[in-house]
Write a structure and sequence with these properties.
Structural class: alpha/beta
Oligomer: single chain
Number of helices: 10
Helix content: 25-40%
Bound molecules: flavin-adenine dinucleotide
Largest sheet: 8 strands, mixed
Number of strands: 19
Strand content: 25-35%
Strand order of the largest sheet: 5-4-13-14-15-12-17-16
Shape: globular
């Protein structure tokens, strides 16, 4: 059994880092999260949680929060983006029964808030951007940009796509622009026709572009994600304000529902993200440091699996620390159990854009979509899947 006074440091307080923190705390460990931001901020977007993630969140005590804060789409509708014709209604009613957990849609800030409360904000050290780390035989020394230096028996690097730790210890190749961008916004539901607030996931598809809407916060807000191909990405940073006229021009030929939605996104709520990719890594461990979440396996959002996969990581890490005899064994067990699953999600997600946008949408009238459900991804349960040693 691992000594519960072992000092565990998590770098990054996103969905991945917080989930890992809760799971390790639940296993009895003393954990600190070091987050570069001065404060946790409101993230204006929706997020879907598929059954594989819901199992994990429930096991960490977030079941009640999910029940009260999310909605369960009864159907997912695929439409021809330009004609507005319904091509495929995908029935999601059986999901809860089939997988023992539902598929949910909620506000990202609500999820982050619930994770922070469950972990304990007093154990999140804000304004602690990791600058460098040095592996020692039985631990790691961490240096932060605010001048703080600390030591930990193990480090979990959950510092996202542009992970300082990944760059330093695992992979010097920088993230590459994928050729895809995402526009994101939230719209007050009373600005839109009633259809947008029904418990559905509505996806309009055409060559090189699609747009998804679903309701969040008891239908008060509608989440919009418009994904499209783009020649290049020049803006600095990961999240930038988007040009609404440019967005409307891109979707000019789309059906009236799509145009109504896009026209109603408040300017201040419209963001554009360049989507970047990194190659799957075969190993996520260097000394006493492991990668987790987007730092380990960033993926395009075409299957809505990035955060779900980070949640799976966190739950498995907690189980490995609870069940293994020493820290080295726990880190190896975590990596052995997770790499194949996460790399599969990463590869399939990155192909998702081609599956949705590169084919004639009319194909979907007769051919079932090869989505995350059809690929069997929902059947994974991080709470019960065997740990590999
Ligand atoms: C448009 C879009 C839609 C998406 N929709 C979904 C969805 O519906 N469902 C889903 O499951 N996934 C979705 N995803 C993916 C999901 O958002 C990510 O996979 C997930 O947020 C990754 O979480 P993370 O904690 O690993 O990384 P991040 O969320 O990137 O968090 C990393 C944290 O580390 C901090 N950090 C960074 N560097 C340092 C440092 N040096 N020192 C200290 N702290 C640091 C950052 O400030 C941040 O708080 C979507 C992604 C996009 C782009």
């Amino acid at each position: 059994m691992i000594d519960r006074t072992a000092k565990l440091a998590i770098v990054g307080g996103g969905i991945g880092g917080l989930t890992a923190g809760i799971a390790l705390k639940k296993a009895g460990f003393d954990v600190r999260i070091y987050e570069q931001a001065p404060a946790f901020g409101e993230v204006g977007a929706g997020i879907s949680m598929s059954p594989n993630a819901v199992h994990g969140l429930r096991s960490l005590g977030l079941g009640e929060f999910l029940d009260s804060s999310s909605n369960e789409p009864i159907e997912q509708h695929l439409y021809h983006g330009e004609t507005g014709e319904l091509l495929q209604p995908i029935d999601r009613r059986g999901t809860r029964e089939r997988y023992g957990a539902p598929y949910l849609q909620l506000h990202r800030a609500d999820l982050l808030g619930a994770l922070i409360r469950a972990f304990g904000p007093e154990n999140c050290l804000m304004d602690h951007g990791l600058e460098s780390l040095e592996s020692r035989d039985d631990g790691v020394a961490l240096t932060f940009t605010n001048g703080t230096v600390t030591e930990a028996d193990a480090v979990i690097a959950a510092d996202g796509l542009r992970s300082v730790v990944r760059d330093a210890l695992f992979d010097t190749k920088p993230p590459e622009f994928s050729g895809h961008i995402a526009y994101r916004g939230l719209i007050p539901a009373d600005e839109l026709s009633a259809r947008s607030t029904e418990p559905l996931n509505i996806n309009h598809l055409a060559f090189g572009r699609n747009m998804v809407t679903y309701p969040v916060r008891q239908g008060d807000l509608v989440n919009v994600v418009a994904l499209s191909k783009a020649d290049g990405w020049v803006d600095e940073g990961w999240s930038v304000k988007a040009d609404k006229a440019e967005l409307l021009a891109k979707y000019d030929s789309f059906a009236p529902y799509v145009r109504e939605v896009l026209e109603n996104i408040p300017e201040e709520e419209l963001f554009c993200w360049g989507l970047f990719i990194r190659e799957p890594l075969e190993n996520w461990r260097a000394g006493r440091t492991v990668l987790l979440g987007d730092a380990a396996h960033p993926m395009l959002p075409y299957m809505g699996q990035g955060a779900s996969c980070a949640i799976e990581d966190g739950v498995i890490l907690g189980r490995a620390f609870a069940e293994c005899d020493d820290i080295d064994e726990a880190l190896d067990c975590y990596v052995a159990t997770r790499v194949e699953r996460a790399s599969t999600l990463q590869r399939e997600s990155n192909l998702g854009g081609e599956r949705l946008q590169a084919i004639d949408p009319d194909m979907f009238r007769d051919t079932p979509i090869k989505d995350e459900d059809a690929l069997g991804i929902f059947a994974y349960d991080p709470v019960t899947t065997p740990l590999l040693r």
